Amino acid sequence: MATISERFPAVMAGMAEYFHPGRTVDDLFLG
């Protein structure tokens, strides 16, 4: 997932906000 987050940080941030408002991408995949 690191590659995707590096290439598309806005997309990863959008996903984080969409699925879990207030959480970070790390929270999504590691929490």
Content-based structural category: mainly alpha
Counting DSSP H or I runs of 4 or more residues, the number of helices is: 3
- Mean pLDDT score, rounded? 71
Work out the strand percent: under 5%
Q: What's the N-to-C terminus distance?
A: 14 Å
Number of domains: 1
> Which residues form runs of ≥5 with pLDDT under 50?
none
Number of strands: 0
Radius of gyration: 9 Å
Anisotropy-based shape: flat
Main sheet characteristics: none
Percent range of helical residues: over 70%
What string gives the helices and strands in order?
HHH
Structure explained in plain terms:
- By secondary structure, the protein is an all-alpha fold.
- Helix content is 74%, strand content 0%.
- It contains three helices and no strands.
- It is flat and about 20 Å long.
- The protein starts with a helix and ends with a helix.
